[in-house]
Design a protein that fits this description.
303 residues, alpha+beta, Ribosomal Protein S5, domain 2, Alpha-Beta Plaits, 2 domains, seven-stranded mixed sheet, four-stranded antiparallel sheet, 9 helices, 23% strand, binds adenosine-5'-diphosphate, binds (3R)-3-hydroxy-3-methyl-5-(phosphonooxy)pentanoic acid, binds magnesium ion, GHMP_kinase_C_dom, Mevalonate kinase, kinase
Length: 303
């Protein structure tokens, strides 16, 4: 018996970290996927070639294996499995590798067990795994990997799928990441020390996200870049940017991008830039020191 499923990675356009405090956020699935295949086996093995992982244990753990171990505990029986994970994105890159892996594994386990409960339950189950492993997580990453396309997560945590022509977006990433759990904990500590200031910062991020959503619904991408720059300034004030992420952000702007910001938890990982009419220039400029790619959207969710 063998089953497989695939889920996309994502880029957060607006609202990362604020979304942990029930502020809205906008995310887009990108054409980089994680595919998981599970098959019956005499003992449990996990193979992730892109990470050089060949792991054998009844309860996989350590790094990204924590997400797999928790999924098996919650959504599988005790029978041994061979689990193979093909990842088209670097782990820890701010592009949602943990969420895409979790959603794809839950999809493969559901098919293996003959379950069919729809995307809402899949997203909820995957979100529970991220919370259990990370200590805190919004439903954003797991929702976008489940539903695909474009998602606006509102302040009541409702998933609103929508369509818009995002135009020319570029994603660039570093070779290292800031561990999401650690970055989320750092923002929580700053919130504890400066609750009023941080509360106002998150309120302002909410205004930026809602302005962007309103304009995208009108298919107006003109203010997108400037709104990204405003969001970046507030991410910097949350303490999640780094010298190198700031260098990438400014390299993209100097090459003509209308705006650019961190995408994901920060501390490392990736940036996103809106580059109307200058995608090639921005990719060329960023590729001098980092790894950049034109992001393709309108991507399917869990399949
Ligand atoms: N080379 C690696 N081997 C195993 N686990 C890794 C490796 N690189 C990153 N990880 C783990 O992968 C997970 C990535 O999840 P996260 O930090 O949420 O980043 P993202 O979701 O943005 O990709 C983390 O648990 C991290 O410890
Ligand atoms: C920082 C946060 O808003 C997004 C984290 O994204 P990623 O795990 O770095 O891809 C956390 C969350 O939404 O759970
Ligand atoms: Mg993650």
């Amino acid at each position: 018996m063998k089953s497989s499923a695939s889920a996309p990675a994502k880029a957060i356009l607006f609202g990362e970290h604020a979304v942990v405090y029930s502020k809205p956020a906008i995310a887009a699935a990108i054409d980089r996927r994680v595919t998981v295949t599970v098959s019956e086996s005499s003992s449990t093995h996990v193979t992730i070639p892109s990470l050089g992982i060949r792991h054998s244990s009844e309860r996989p753990s350590g790094g990204i294996l924590d997400y797999i171990g928790r999924c098996l505990e919650l959504y599988h029986d005790a029978s041994p499995l061979d689990i193979r994970v093909e990842m088209e994105i670097p782990a820890g890159s701010g592009l949602g590798s943990s969420a895409a892996l979790t959603v794809a594994l839950i999809g493969a386990l559901d098919r293996y067990h003959g379950r069919d409960h729809g995307p809402g339950e899949t997203a909820a189950r995957a979100h529970r795994v991220e919370v259990d492993v990370q200590g805190a997580a919004s439903p954003l990453d797991t929702a976008i990997s489940t539903y695909g396309g474009l998602v606006y997560l509102d302040s009541q945590r409702r998933v609103r799928q929508f369509e818009a022509d995002l135009g020319d977006l570029v994603i660039a990433h570093l070779d290292y990441s800031g561990e999401t759990a650690r970055m989320v904990a750092g923002v929580a500590e700053r919130f504890r020390r400066f609750p009023d200031i941080m509360g106002r910062i998150m309120d302002t991020v909410e205004s930026i996200t809602n302005t962007a959503y309103r304009e995208l619904l009108r298919n107006n991408t003109e203010p997108l870049g400037e709104l990204m720059n405003l969001n970046q300034g507030l991410l910097d004030s949350m303490g999640v940017s780094t010298r190198e992420l700031s260098m990438m952000v400014y390299e993209a702007r100097n090459a003509g991008a209308a705006g650019s910001k961190i995408t994901g938890a920060g501390g490392g990982g990736s940036i996103i830039a809106h580059c109307p009419g200058c995608v090639d220039d921005v990719v060329t400029a960023l590729n001098r020191n980092w790894k950049a790619m034109r992001a393709e959207f309108s991507v399917k969710g869990l399949i």
